[in-house]
Amino acid sequence: MASDDLRETFLALREQCIWIRTCFNTFIGLFESGGVRHQLMDKTAPLFFQEINRILYENYILQVCKLTDKASTPVKGGKRLNLTVAHVNELLNAEGMMNQAIQDATVGLDRFRTLIEEARNRLVGHSDKVAVLSFVPLGTHTQQESLAFFGYMFNYVDAVGNAIGVGPLDFGTTSSSGDVHDLFKALNGGQYPHEDGG
Fold it and tell me: Which of 16, 24, 71, 75 is deepest in the core (most CB within 10 A)?
């Protein structure tokens, strides 16, 4: 049976995963939602939506890197534990609950981190002068690689949830009242916009 510390730590980590997915779903709802919604954004507040695009993307980079950071950070006189996959894995190993599904998902999460870590380190988390002034794109990845990350994240939280007895949780869809879809309804005169022009 999992310790209270492991359960509490995992549930807090899973909340971080839900937040990452929520932000990603908002990004998709705004910027990969088709021409009708793009026209509404361009017609109402194009600069605002450009700013939101950048904010959501930078937040995504930061959140994914936070999730996949090291288990702890050295500090004077010891270490500070980080709420990360690596820390949960340390707890799982200590309690003999690690399994192959968790390990495989961890490898996939870490692989995606390698694609975006330089962007976090040189552009988002810090302003590296050479990187900023050279306009060299950092952190580029394909939509398939991003979707694969979420597949590994879902696999990870389900595998750990099953291992420690809290079960899986489906949080791929995070829509609720007052979300991005309702924003577009308001921008479209009270009607949900559809790609067929409705």
Answer: 24
